[in-house]
Design goal:
Blueprint: E1 8-14, E2 20-25, E3 31-33, E4 47-49
Antiparallel strand pairs: 1-2, 1-4, 2-3
Length: about 60
């Protein structure tokens, strides 16, 4: 059973430069790049989750 404080991984894209990477989606909605301090070099890049399907863990 999933805990409400559980962190989730997702693919995200910087809306400013288009860089794509894996982020950790924290329970408070914060997106934090995995394995690096930032996803890209943009000073104010906004990260957006690319796609989510909470009912499926299967790859296409």
């Amino acid at each position: 059973m999933a805990d409400n404080d559980e962190k989730q991984r997702a693919a995200a894209r910087c809306e400013q430069c288009g860089e794509i990477g894996i982020v950790e989606r924290q329970s408070n909605g914060t997106l934090k790049p995995l394995g690096q301090p930032t996803l890209c070099d943009c000073p104010d890049g906004t990260l957006r989750i690319l796609e989510t399907d909470p009912g499926s863990d299967d790859l296409p």
